[in-house]
Amino acid sequence: MARSKASNIFKVKSSCPADTARLAGLFAAGLKGGDALFLEGPIGSGKTFFVRELAAALGAKKLPVSASFNLMRAYKGRLKLYHFDLFRAGEADMENIGLDEYLGRADGITAVEWPAAAGESGAEPIRLEFELAGGDRRVIKITSGAADRPAVEKIEAKWLKK
Fold this sequence. Notes:
Helices cover 30% and strands 26% of the residues. It is of the alpha/beta class.
């Protein structure tokens, strides 16, 4: 993992799905209501798997699957998880789904796959960029703004303790 203090970025090398699940568990333990995650990366890079493991770590009984035919689903756990999958969303859809109404909600965490469809929002989310690295390996670049930096730094410190 590499760290860039100036840009609030660190990279996680996930060698297998269990590593990605562990990272999701660390996020579940370290996030608070109102936090938002924007997940980017190619199809099959692990975005939905990460969200599924995040929901499980939050204690959700029902776990996410690819929500590509449902723009948003909510899962109940320690905190609610609002999972948006904007892969098939167009500009007209964005006017109707109310993403901005979920960003910052104190009762849950909002996870958005394919966030580019939403355009610019007022939110300063934690961004996770998933890159394929061969086989089950992934590189996950995590970028946070100033408000989320302390939480992300704690997640990073726990990740390093493997």
